[in-house]
Each structure stands twice: as C-alpha cells, then as structure tokens.
Design a protein that fits this description.
The mean pLDDT is 91. The chain contains 9 helices and 2 strands. The protein is 69% helix and 2% strand. Helix 4 packs across helix 6 and helix 6 runs antiparallel to helix 7. A two-stranded antiparallel ribbon has the order 1-2. The chain is mainly alpha-helical. The chain starts with a helix and ends with a helix.
C-alpha cells in the first residue's frame, strides 16, 4: 500500500520523538481517530457526485470505516504502541474506562495501523477482490490524511515526567 512520503516522514519523526527523545503524544487527541474517520466519510459523501459513486460504494466505505475503527481499538494496545507509550496507555485506560481508544488517540497512531494492515489482512479469509477494494480505500484515506496533515498531526509532543520515566521502563 503506497504511503505518501510526507506521511513516511511523519512516521519516522514519531518513532524518534518517542523512542529516542522519550516524548509522548499528548492525549486525548483532537481530532481523534473516530472523528478523523467520520470526517473522511463526510468528505467522501460530499464528493461522491464527482466520483459517480453509488449507494453500494457508500455502504462499502461505511463498512471499511467501521472495520478500521474496530481494528484500531483492538490493535492499539497489542501492536501499535512503542514500549515507552505502554504506561501512558495504561493510565489512559484507567482515566477513561469504557471509552474506546479510537475516541482518545489520533492520526499518529492510526498511521501506524496503516503500516501494520498488510500483515493483518494476510491473516484474514478475505477474498482477493475484497482485499483490493480495502487497499484502494485505505490508499484514499492516506491521501486524505496527507492533504490534512497540518491539522491532523500534533506539532509538539509532551515531555514525560520523571515519575513516568521511572514507571515506563
């Protein structure tokens, strides 16, 4: 799946800030993953006349967005966090019990899901046509994220407290 170069740079910068500089993405994020995906759905609907998309295409987009939200919520704590972020995740889960990660985390972590998706898709029983459709829509979401990157990605990461540094090891 083609990831725009600017988003690849975002991924590298994100990795460096967290793993090398020991900084954290401030949470909760605005927009959240859920808001970003909803905004994308609305964007798709507002431009559907240009695309000549039918009701079936709209249903497919809705299904893909719902699936991405579910995947994100399930994958965040297991495969999307760097070791240094795990304690932050634990604290966020305690602070917002019952609230799904997609309503707390933002584009930085969603982008990590897109990197992991080819491996995750390989473990499903999706047929080739469905996989291709999913890839096309994910590429479109990445283009959307690229266009709005200035508003989706946080500029300043937080410095972790000394107590956090001790507990996060």
């Amino acid at each position: 799946m083609p990831i725009p170069n600017a988003l690849k740079s975002q991924l590298v910068d994100d990795w460096e800030r967290i793993t090398k500089d020991r900084l954290l993405v401030p949470l909760p994020r605005k927009p959240t993953v859920a808001e970003l995906l909803t905004d994308y759905q609305e964007f798709r609907q507002s431009t559907k006349d240009k695309r000549k998309a039918g009701k079936r295409d709209e249903e497919v987009v809705d299904e893909i967005i719902d699936g991405l939200r579910v995947y994100f919520d399930k994958a965040l704590g297991n495969i999307l966090l760097y070791r240094f972020e795990r304690y932050q995740y634990k604290m966020i889960c305690e602070r917002y019990p019952g609230k799904p990660p997609s309503e707390i985390y933002g584009a930085e972590h969603l982008l990590r899901l897109f990197v992991q998706m080819p491996g995750l898709i390989a473990h499903t029983n999706m047929d080739e046509e469905a996989v291709q459709l999913l890839r096309e829509h994910m590429a479109d979401i990445l283009k959307y994220m690229h266009r709005l990157s200035k508003t989706l990605f946080v500029e300043e990461y937080e410095t972790a407290s000394p107590a956090y540094m001790t507990l996060a090891k």
